[in-house]
Amino acid sequence: MDKIQQHHNLLVFEDVIAHPEVRLPSRSPIWSTVFHTDWSVDKAWKENWFKKEVSNQWQFLITDPAICQPGFDLECKVWTLLNRFCTSHGLCAATLHDWGIHDDSFCACGSKQTMLHIVNECLLSKFPGGLHALHTAENDSVTWLRKLSIR
């Protein structure tokens, strides 16, 4: 009990107030991070979201990450597939090849099969209007996604 002290009417452990020096220069204790009073998690998230420099098209689909996106009320399987296309992170031949599951990364049309290829370029499966039209989650989009999820 001798390691607990009174600080501003709170009982706290001594090392929180007078914490030991940081041993590794790359690490700092969580209590040494000071947040400004005008800091908000929503503001920080939005600033971080829009600062990212991503080469994929999906960064332009989401204008406000704090609101529900189109298709949010779809059944789980279709919603998941829609998100995989919008983020370019799904189970396509290129990804499965990178993971060592498939022998090659090619689509049936002969091109490298990525999520963006399936929706934007593939002569066998592309969605009219591409990824931007698919993201709207309107009836045509949902029908196309359901056909893909059956395969």
What would you note in describing this structure?
By secondary structure, the chain is mostly helical. It has a domain at 76-150. Helices cover 38% and strands 5% of the residues. It has seven helices and two strands, in the order E-E-H-H-H-H-H-H-H. It has helices spanning 14-17, 41-51, 76-87, 93-98, 115-121, 130-135, 139-150; strands spanning 4-7, 10-13. Strands 1-2 form a two-stranded antiparallel ribbon. Helix 3 packs across helix 7 (139-150).
- Described by its quaternary structure, the protein is single chain
Number of helices: 7
Sheet with most strands: 2 strands, antiparallel
Strand content: 5-15%
Distance between the termini: 64 Å
Q: Rg from C-alpha positions?
A: 24 Å
What's the gist of this structure?
The chain is mainly alpha-helical. Helices cover 38% and strands 5% of the residues.
Topology (elements, then pairings):
Blueprint: E1 4-7, E2 10-13, H1 14-17, H2 41-51, H3 76-87, H4 93-98, H5 115-121, H6 130-135, H7 139-150
Helix pairs in contact: 3-7
Features:
151 residues, mainly alpha, two-stranded antiparallel ribbon
